Amino acid sequence: MPGKKHTHKYNKIEIAGQKVWSCALDDCSHYMPYYLRQIMPGKGSLCWNCGNKFILTEPLMERERPICMQCDLKERGINLDVNNIDDIIAMIGQNTKDKTVEK
């Protein structure tokens, strides 16, 4: 019988001394051995802060309980809407301007 189709809420746990990526949802027993973590980037997960679905990346997976890019930026004090292209372009332009060296 196939499992319930849903987006997992991944976290790192330890089972019998071995690290694993596990789904924290009550009705899910899915887990992924930690040594297979290289296949995790690109998979969907639910954010531990806001609950929205996001795509796992290696930097976001460094946390025990991964959060989305938007929540990660908020925690770093960066007010940027990653879903608003104008905000992203403005941020890139500002960073480029800050690094310009006059000759």
Distance N to C terminus: 69 Å
- Integer count of domains: 1
Residue share in β-strands: 15-25%
Q: Label the overall shape.
A: elongated
Order of helices and strands: EEEEEHH
Report Rg. 18 Å
**Main sheet makeup:** 3 strands, antiparallel
Q: Largest beta sheet: what is the strand line-up?
A: 1-2-3
The SS-based structural class is alpha+beta
Indicate the mean pLDDT: 83
Q: Number of DSSP strands?
A: 5
Q: How many H/I helices?
A: 2
Assembly context of the chains: single chain
Low-confidence stretches: 97-103
Helix % is 10-25%
Structure characterization notes:
The chain has 103 residues and is of the alpha+beta class. It is built from 2 helices and 5 strands. It has one domain (10-98). The chain has helices at residues 69-75, 85-98; strands at residues 10-15, 18-23, 31-33, 44-46, 53-55. The strands form 2 sheets. Strands 1-2-3 form a 3-stranded antiparallel sheet, with no helix packed on it.
Brief characterization of the structure:
The protein is of the alpha+beta class. The chain has one domain (10-98).
